[in-house]
Design a protein that fits this description.
Blueprint (H helix, E strand, L loop, with lengths): L4 E14 L2 E14 L3 E5 L6 H9 L6 E6 L3 E2 L9 H6 E4 L3 H4 L6 H12 L7 H11 L16 H13 L5 E5 L7 H18 L2 E6 L2 H7 L2 E6 L2 E7 H6 L4 H8 L6 H6 L41 E4 L2 E3 L6
Parallel strand pairs: 3-8, 3-9, 6-7, 7-8
Antiparallel strand pairs: 1-2, 1-4, 4-5, 9-10, 10-12, 11-12
Helix pairs in contact: 4-5, 4-6, 5-6, 6-7
Bound molecules: iron/sulfur cluster.
Amino acid sequence: MQDDIILNVSDLKKYFNTAEGVVRAVDGVSFNIRYGETLALVGESGSGKTTTGHVIMGFYSPDDGKIIYKNRYDLSAPMKKRPLELKRDIQIVFQDPGTSLNPKRLVKDIISLPLLIHKTIDKRRIYDKVAELLEYVGLSEEFMFKYPHELGGGEKQLVAVARALAPQPSFIILDESTSALDVSSQAKVLNTLVKIQKELQLTYLLITHDLGVVRNISQRVMIMYLGKIYEEAPTEKFFKSPMHPYTQMLLSSIPTLSEEDEKIKPKGIESIGEIPSAVKPPNGCRFHTRCPFAKPVCSQRDPPDIVLDSNHIVRCWLYE
Ligand code: SF4
């Protein structure tokens, strides 16, 4: 593994048994994340993006594949086998701070809990540290003495970010962390995330369906569909020259704000139908039931990874 890689995921699989059958939520996913970057994992609901993040967090054990962190930790091992320093080093910020923050605790207690668990600071200095963490995320010291219900949506999410920062992690999974917020709160939280990333040299895995957020904060993008990754590119290239028909479909469906954006929006490919069930995913390319360019081979064989240039990979028979 190269020295600049913080996380290496190879051929990761996670299946769930349900009453309808086996859901192949993540079905052979491989990627790297570099130190200090924000990698966006994008897809519709049911694509497997959140399951991928939760396997990395250790909420589920993978059924197959490897996850290597910092060249020395095997994250494919069960959560209980992870050492405390590893649990400290990887944090997550969930979508809904309303449910992820304990409503009966004051903000100072919510943020100080991970400080106590991970013993990252002397007990006597704990509330100074809480105030410092609040300041990092742009909230004043007075917020220490508020309950979550006294906060707005953006403020709650900033408290959740401060809590994630408390154990001094290197890597944070942002699991749809701004999706439930209004536009102005979203901008505030995103700006804060960018600021603290630079100051604290953090690495982010951004899990989202929101391409506007991707454009604002990520350096690379991966598109996931029914458990597999179909395109991977640097963010600028992703928006300027999307190659996979599914990526083009997603981009053509987002509202644009400027004439410039309208010019680069893919034309002639519209959203067709819904994502099929992950219990019985289509054979071959899983997107073929919705793809206007599908050829006979698409329903028979899985497309290979096509390397368009050093940073741009697409999985589609059109480019073979
Ligand atoms: Fe469409 Fe075939 Fe490409 Fe899949 S492999 S996206 S079905 S053209």
